[in-house]
């Protein structure tokens, strides 16, 4: 798998350091708030797990599974909810955990969904942000790293179900996904 990576953007050590920083910020914000923390599966799994282990306050963990990709590399812009929450978010703060904010469609969809269910507040913490690909006006409240407009894999992000288990964030070689 490592041979398919053009460039490592953020090493495992850099990712861990940034997660520590994000956890400190979130702890200051949510101490005593009892939020529902909602990772967006499957991409946010690794980031969410590491982040939540560092949050020393009461929270509920739930998750959603959504899809906006019709093929393996291009967003369709239409978001489908594949797995819904089991917790009621009415009157509760919701913290969405994302792997990457790309086109913004997923985040826009989830913000509207949780607002319609009466969430007290809705914020997003994303490991990565790719503003060059944004198609709708949304932003994460807390961001680990901004990435270039390249095909990013590793640390939960995939291409065709592969590369999620890389312990770093890297750029996938074009030859891998353009064939």
From TrEMBL:
* Family from the record: Belongs to the purine/pyrimidine phosphoribosyltransferase family.
UniProt xrefs under InterPro entries: HGPRT, Hxn_phspho_trans, PRTase-like, PRTase_dom
* Top-level EC class: transferase
Q: Where is the protein localized? A: Cytoplasm
Q: Superkingdom of the source?
A: Bacteria
Keyword DNA repair appears in the UniProt entry? no
Q: In which pathway does it act?
A: Purine metabolism; GMP biosynthesis via salvage pathway; GMP from guanine: step 1/1; Purine metabolism; IMP biosynthesis via salvage pathway; IMP from hypoxanthine: step 1/1
Primary localisation category: cytoplasm
Q: What does this protein do?
A: Purine salvage pathway enzyme that catalyzes the transfer of the ribosyl-5-phosphate group from 5-phospho-alpha-D-ribose 1-diphosphate (PRPP) to the N9 position of the 6-oxopurines hypoxanthine and guanine to form the corresponding ribonucleotides IMP (inosine 5'-monophosphate) and GMP (guanosine 5'-monophosphate), with the release of PPi.
Q: Which reaction does it catalyse?
A: GMP + diphosphate = guanine + 5-phospho-alpha-D-ribose 1-diphosphate; IMP + diphosphate = hypoxanthine + 5-phospho-alpha-D-ribose 1-diphosphate
Quote the Gene3D superfamilies the UniProt record gives: 3.40.50.2020
Q: Which protein is depicted? A: Hypoxanthine phosphoribosyltransferase
A single Pfam family it belongs to is Pribosyltran
* GO molecular function term, any single one: glycosyltransferase activity
Q: Does the keyword Metal-binding apply?
A: yes
Organism source for this protein?
Limosilactobacillus oris F0423
Keyword terms, alphabetized: Cytoplasm, Glycosyltransferase, Magnesium, Metal-binding, Nucleotide-binding, Purine salvage, Transferase
Q: Which gene encodes it?
A: hpt
Essential cofactor(s): Mg(2+)
Give every Phosphoribosyltransferase domain span: 11-159
């Amino acid at each position: 798998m490592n041979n398919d990576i053009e460039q490592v953007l953020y090493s495992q050590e850099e990712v861990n350091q940034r997660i520590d920083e994000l956890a400190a910020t979130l702890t200051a914000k949510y101490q005593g708030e009892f939020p529902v923390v909602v990772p967006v599966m499957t991409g946010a799994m690794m980031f969410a797990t590491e982040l939540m282990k560092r949050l020393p306050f009461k929270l509920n963990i739930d998750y959603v599974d959504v899809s906006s990709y019709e093929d393996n590399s291009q967003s369709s812009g239409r978001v489908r909810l594949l797995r819904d929450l089991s917790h009621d978010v009415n009157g509760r703060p919701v913290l969405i955990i994302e792997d990457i904010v790309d086109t913004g469609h997923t985040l826009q969809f989830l913000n509207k969904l949780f607002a319609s269910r009466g969430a007290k507040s809705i914020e997003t913490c994303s490991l990565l942000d790719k503003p060059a690909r944004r198609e709708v006006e949304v932003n994460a409240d807390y961001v680990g790293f901004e990435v270039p407009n390249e095909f990013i894999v590793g640390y939960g992000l995939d291409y065709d179900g592969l590369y999620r288990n890389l312990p770093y964030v890297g750029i996938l070689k074009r030859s891998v996904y353009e064939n």
